[in-house]
Design a protein that fits this description.
The complex is a heterodimer of chains A (260) and B (306). Chain A contains eleven helices and no strands. Chain A is mainly alpha-helical. Chain A has one domain: MetI-like (MetI-like fold, Orthogonal Bundle), CATH 1.10.3720.
Chain lengths: 260, 306
């Protein structure tokens, strides 16, 4: 298990360096150079240039900010909504709990890709809309977990003791119960990170997410599709980046899952 | 019998809630439906009276519950409205695209069965040795490679480099293998993981030891005792994947320009054609629920304890 932690951390660190330091050191990712179209990898352009003469490595680095940033936003937003909704359901019980649980049941009974497509369909294509759409699909598992955590905590000795010491129910939930759910929420949220990266880049590939000229990995792949026959390196850049990111997320969530 | 009714009732409840979600999302969507309908009828710059007439025709002035009830009633009787792009009924557009999607999905499922079982048995029989490592590697790769990446790469290598097949598929049998294989890759990883886990569970169960004590080989233990043990979780996952294919095929269909429901959905989203989006999503939910119910029924039919 140490091996998967090491490999996952190494891959994540590599991506973090690419996303954080890359755009500072590399040329402008959106600046076209029509004299340097579709150049193979060289010293000046380590991953070659694309159909508009833009540096692929620079676009990969700025795309890392977009793709990984959006994936982290979806995961964070989904976890935040899930914790609040699950916490409220577990705290309030009764009709509020029934209503929230019903929505969670429906969201869990429908494929999350379909939910995301339905929301993007209503809001219209775009990166912000896509992030919102995927968050709508992502919060349900976290909410279910948090709700059951809050409900089962009611009879825990430390919770009973806190209640008897005069601490209000709201403060008990916020201060004594929810902090204990942190690691499990993290594990459930991390479990979906790889799929979120695939979903985001996939829907951007279809033109439903990031719009040109924004560099996004799936979007880069879609733009370069028709030049792959002459310039196969255009597939390698974003393809390998997506693979490394999804593998890193998978390895780390595996490790986290087995720790709990 | 009562179980069956309860199962169907719960599926119907989910479908009803999903329909409310689908309808409500369209309500939240920006833009005036009346203008879109006029646009589909060839009126690009409508005058006020035309808009008023269409608003009255669509009943846009009614209260929200009335409009939802009317929309739901239509949906139940097979009327999902008309496309804003073509003006044709949504059900006609769906019906036209459904055969291609069914062909693609069924072929993908047929392709996935054998490799999934091979990987699961390799993993369970060769536990902690190289076959298991190999099978786990293949499963990890299958889950990590997105279908659009695999599809683009396959299209590039097989069609463009080797000259086999066509770039633009027409949805016929001749074009089916490549997109079906792309779709199958993701299914194989999912099924193999579930089956391998259940087989390994079964191999360490007391009944497996009894069988071994009576002289069965490891393969016989897994085939005769392991497979029935693996059936319920595998059936549940299989029902979900098959039902979810309608949605999951959107990416693969778009890569291969496959004329199916998934691509129709993506086209409709890009063109902001809300009635078609609603129709495709509802069809996807229906397919997914049908898959789940079918898997549940199959599990009950095969398990004497239930």
């Amino acid at each position: 298990m140490r091996a998967s932690l090491l490999a996952g951390t190494a891959a994540a660190a590599l991506l973090a360096v690419l996303a954080l330091a890359g755009p500072l050191a590399l040329p402008d990712p959106d600046l076209p150079d029509y004299a340097a179209k579709l150049l193979p990898p060289s010293a000046a352009h380590p991953l070659g240039t694309d159909q508009l003469g833009r540096d692929v490595l620079a676009r990969l680095a700025s795309g890392a900010r977009v793709t990984l940033g959006a994936a982290l936003a979806v995961t964070t937003l989904g976890a935040a909504i899930g914790v609040v909704a699950g916490g409220v359901a577990g705290y309030a019980r009764g009709p509020v709990d029934a209503a929230i649980s019903r929505v969670v049941d429906v969201l869990l009974a429908v494929p999350s890709t379909l939910v995301a497509l339905a929301v993007v369909g209503a809001l219209g294509p775009g990166l912000v809309h896509l992030v919102l759409a995927m968050s709508v699909a992502a919060w349900a598992p976290v909410a279910r977990l948090t709700r059951s955590h809050v409900l089962t905590a009611a009879t825990r000795p430390d919770v009973v003791a806190a209640r008897m010491a005069g601490v209000g129910r709201g403060r008990v939930v916020l201060g004594h119960v929810l902090p204990g759910a942190f690691l499990r929420v993290l594990a459930v949220a991390a479990l979906g990170l790889g799929e979120t990266i695939i979903g985001l880049s996939g829907l951007s590939f279809l033109g439903l997410g990031a719009q040109p000229p924004t560099a996004e990995w799936g979007q880069m792949l879609a733009e370069s599709r028709y030049d792959l026959a002459s310039s196969p390196w255009l597939l390698a850049g974003p393809g390998v980046a997506i693979l490394v990111a999804v593998s890193a997320a998978g390895l780390l969530s595996d490790w986290l899952g087995e720790r709990l | 019998m009562r179980r069956l009714l309860r199962l169907l009732a719960s599926a119907a409840g989910t479908l009803l809630a999903a329909s409310l979600l689908v309808w409500g999302l369209a309500e939240l969507s920006p833009g005036d439906p009346a203008r879109q309908v006029l646009l589909s009828r060839g009126v690009a710059v409508p005058v006020e009276t035309q808009i008023e007439a269409v608003r009255a025709e669509l009943g846009l002035g009614d209260a929200a519950p009335v409009r939802y009830a009317r929309w739901l009633g239509g949906a139940l009787t097979g009327d999902l409205g008309s496309s804003w792009r073509t003006g044709r009924p949504v059900t006609a557009e769906l019906g036209e695209r459904l055969p291609a999607t069914l062909r693609l999905c069924l072929t993908a499922v047929a392709l996935a069965i054998l490799p999934a079982f091979a990987l699961a048995f390799a993993g369970a029989l060769g536990r902690h040795r190289w076959p298991d490592a190999l099978s786990r590697g293949v499963m990890f790769a299958g889950a990590a490679v997105p279908s659009f990446l695999l599809g683009v790469a396959l299209l590039e290598i097989v069609v463009v480099r080797w000259g086999v097949g066509r770039v633009v598929a027409d949805g016929g049998w001749a074009d089916t293998p490549l997109p079906a294989a792309t779709l199958a890759a993701g299914i194989v990883a999912q099924w193999a993981r579930v089956t391998r886990g259940a087989l390994i569970d079964a191999a360490s169960a007391p009944f497996a030891d009894v069988s071994r004590a009576r002289g069965s080989g490891e393969l016989r233990v897994l085939l005769v005792h392991g497979l029935p043990h693996a059936a319920p979780p595998l059936l549940a996952v299989a029902g979900m994947t098959v039902g979810g294919l309608l949605a999951g095929a959107a990416v693969v269909e778009s890569v291969f320009t496959w004329p199916g429901v998934g691509r129709l959905l993506v086209e409709a989203i890009t063109a902001r054609d809300l009635p078609v989006v609603q129709g495709c999503v509802l069809a996807g939910v229906l397919a997914f629920l049908a898959g789940a119910v079918a898997a549940d029924l199959a599990t009950r039919a095969g398990d004497p304890r239930l």
